[in-house]
Amino acid sequence: MNLDLPTAERFARIALGHVGREYPHKLDHVLTSDDDARTPRDLHPIFFGSFDWHSCVHGWWTLLTLRRLFPAIGPAAEIAALAAERFTPAHAAVELAYLDRPESAGFERPYGWAWLLALHHEAARHDDRDWADILRPLAIAFADRFTPYLAKLSYPITVGTHFNTAFALVLARSWSVARDPALTRAIDEWARRAFADERNYRGWEPGGDEFLSPALTAALLMSHVMDRASFSAWFDAFLPEAAMARFEPVAVSDRSDGKIAHLDGLNLSRAWCLRAIATAIASSPRASALELRARRHLDASLPHVAGDYAGEHWLATFALLALYPQPPGDEWTVCR
User: Which residues contact 43 (CB under 8 A, 6 or more apart)?
Assistant: First the structure.
């Protein structure tokens, strides 16, 4: 279940094939007059590809991550050249100005917010380029939205789609740990209020168009918030072994249907969560069973990250998450 060079190159080629593809496109855009009817490239000169804004953002996260992990990868020069073309101060200023519109207060909340922070977090690892400096104002703008949002979010949103709170906070927290201690505290306090007392998960999943597991994303977030011993005990109470029977790979009936294709993402994101949780409870007898379950989920959908644009514009990102090498101390996957 490790990421190798041929797989990395395949994922990079897939992402390069869509981050610059403007159409078809699904805008998250509120119009107040005829003047607001504009093209994706005009509205978002960096993130106009990949069918929608958030998929373009995490498509770029995929490309930069692969460039770092595999510097000799075939498309490395193409990735750098395209990033230099897109990541410019002028383009970033247009993206930032879009957020200043009153109608943009809920733009991409919270999924796109979190992925932009993840992209900035990755860009900062590329010391040979100024990408992080260019993206920093955008990252700060989205980070500044999280604390007031959490202050008024009385209940977690536990659907398995873009509105899922826990998934977004995992990504946001990875960014904040090194940059914004106040945001980290806000996330940790909110997560404990939302999930610390939960026991015997009995939610209905999978949903028919979900790409995230409400239970496993909550558990993944708590693995970052709690120390290892406390998390292991919490996880045993939250998702007892008997409850794991519901977490089998899901079948995808029509990969040309954008919503049904979400289920391939569910298999891949579950594999990521299961592997990360297994790392967090490495001393528990349950860890090996979680790894085996992750492998079954990965095997079910890894062959389908390309083929139809309904999934191709985003699935490689979730395949990369599932295959991420998990070095010691990496805040993406290993709890404190």
Answer: 27, 29, 94, 98
Residues in the chain with pLDDT values less than 50:
327-329, 332-336
Name all contacts of 97-106 with Cβ < 8 Å and 24+ positions apart.
98/43, 98/44, 99/138, 99/141, 99/142, 101/30, 103/30, 103/32, 104/30
Quick one: tokens of 253?
A: 């009936």
C-alpha count within 13 angstroms, C-beta hemisphere, residue 234: 23
Nearest to 225 by CA among 269, 177, 272: 177
Output the six-digit token pair for 336.
């404190």
Query: Which of 87, 31, 21 has the alpha carbon at shortest distance from 55?
Result: 21
Q: Are 15 and 336 in contact (CB under 8 A)?
A: no
Give the other-Cβ count within 10 Å of 16's Cβ: 18
d(CA 194, CA 187): 10
Question: 10 Å Cβ neighbour count for 79?
Answer: 21
pLDDT at 331: 52
Strand ranges for the chain from DSSP E: none
Q: Is 85 exposed, middle or buried (0-12, 13-18, 19+ CB in 10 A)?
A: exposed
Say what the pLDDT of residue 324 is: 85
Instruction: Determine the pLDDT at residue 202.
Output: 86
Give the pLDDT score at 203.
Answer: 87
pLDDT (tens digit, 9 = 90+) per residue, 109-160? 999 999 999 999 999 999 999 999 999 999 999 999 999 999 999 999 999 9
Identify the residue whose tokens are 């957020």.
99
Taking the C-alpha atoms of residue 234 and residue 226, their distance in angstroms, rounded to an integer, is 9
Are 250 and 206 contacting, i.e. CB atoms less than 8 angstroms apart? yes
> What is the rounded distance in angstroms from the CA atom of residue 152 to the CA atom of residue 192?
15
Which residue, 327, 273, 320, 306, is CA-closest to 118? 320
* Interhelix angle 131-152/111-123, nearest 10 degrees: 150
Distance between CA 132 and CA 159 in Å, rounded? 31
**Rounded distance, CA 10 to CA 6, Å?**
6
